[in-house]
Amino acid sequence: MRKAFISPSKYVQGKNEIVNLGYFIKTFGDSALLIAHKDDVTRVKEKLEHTMVQFGVTIIESGFNGECSRSEVHRLQQLAKEHACPCIIGLGGGKAIDTAKCVAEGDALIIVPTIAATDAPTSHSAVLYSQEGEFDDYAYFKQSPSVVLVDTNVIANAPTRFLVAGMGDALSTYFEARATANSYSHVNAGLPCGANGGVGQPAIGTKAALALAKLCYETLLEDGLTAKISCDSNVVTPALENIIETNILLSGLGFESGGLAAAHAIHNGLTALEGTHSYYHGEKVAFTTLVQLVLENASTDEINEVLSFCVSVGLPVCLSDIGVTNVTRLELLNVAQKACILEESIHSMPFPVSEEDVVAAIMVADLIGQEFKKKGE
Fold first, then answer.
1. Is the pTM of this model over 0.85?
2. Quick one: DSSP state of residue 67?
3. Taking a C-beta distance cutoff of 8 angstroms, is the pair 297, 260 a contact?
4. Does 284 count as an annotated binding residue?
5. What is the DSSP string of 248-292?
6. E strands within the chain?
7. Which of 113, 221, 238, 308 is 20 to 30 Å apart from 71, CA to CA?
8. Which residues participate in catalysis according to the annotation?
């Protein structure tokens, strides 16, 4: 039985860690192309200038246009060649990070997240969009980033909503990895069949990945609320450090090497509902984690534990929390149809799932969440 596990070559996290960025650039050469939104560059400008002087390196700004599109990737690759940059830096949120992955194509890549809203920084995959922002394709690379460098002061000073959304994304990690393990389904650490035109080398997850996914969930329960309060106050505490690691590293390793299941598939289906469009990925995944638990008939104790955590940190627990009101059964069926297409991760559940099963689970999870909130009022 073939198993696979994938991870960054190096993960470093700490206060003011960006001042050490030049050290990692130096391991590749004397310069790097920086792919980042101008606002993110402004936030860390002094640290970037400091690290260039301290380590004698040049960081070349690229004027990133904000979209991970094929044309932008091509432009940035040409810019890197013109300046003979031996490495690429992706600094900021998801679009900058994914663009940097595409430009680097799996080599000499440093990722510097400025928010802890998703687990994308550690992964070897990216999402491409059109210039207008419409989904284009997934891209997979031969390895994860060479370095993931996390400055906890920068994340502590970002809006708390990003951190909480990251906790919502991380919340699904253990439950999806558990389902994937129980069904012996393939994980992304083994190249998906057909990825980048290849034949694929499918593999199941390792015990290490499942253990990390479980630690991800346990740390959320233990430190989530204190971390949120810390971020509200813009200060770094041990709890915030633990949750940053949870959102970025544990969740990243857990999803890619442990597997995705119903929660992310149903999230993808929910994008068909216009009301959800103003909510972050992790906010919607928090609710669809509850949907997955209903779908697999999890124990009342486990569902209540997840509900309690979500309410404590301000994550959605019902449809109205993600902008969906007065939804019809036909609209929910459309969500379910998108969640159940052949390519979706919902088929990693350890039992067959029909579109009607998904509709029923969404409806029940919504009612359970509403009732739980009423009891707490």
1. yes
2. -
3. no
4. no
5. IIIHHHHHHHH---HHHHHHHHHTTSGGGGGS-HHHHHHHHHHHH
6. 10-14, 31-35, 58-61, 88-92, 109-113, 125-129, 135-140, 147-151
7. 113
8. 169, 264, 267, 281
Q: 3-state DSSP call for residue 128? A: strand
User: How far apart, in whole angstroms, are the C-alpha atoms of residue 66 and residue 171?
Assistant: 28
Tell me if 119 is assigned to a ligand binding site: yes
95 is in an annotated binding site: yes
**What is the DSSP code string of 161-223?**
HHHHHHHHHHHHHHHHHHHHHHHT-B-TTSPPTTGGG------BPPHHHHHHHHHHHHHHHHH
Is the separation of the CB atoms in 181 and 259 below 8 Å?
yes
Q: Tell whether residue 341 is among the known ligand binding residues.
A: no
pLDDT 10s digits, 9-63: 999 999 999 999 999 999 999 999 999 999 999 999 999 999 999 999 999 999 9
The annotation status of 155 as a binding-site residue, yes or no, is: no
Question: Does the annotation list 129 as a binding residue?
Answer: yes
Domains of the chain: residue spans and CATH: 10-157 (3.40.50.1970), 160-376 (1.20.1090.10)
Contacts of 79 (CB under 8 A, 6+ apart): 33, 60, 62
169-201: pLDDT as tens digits: 999 999 999 999 999 999 999 865 445 444 467
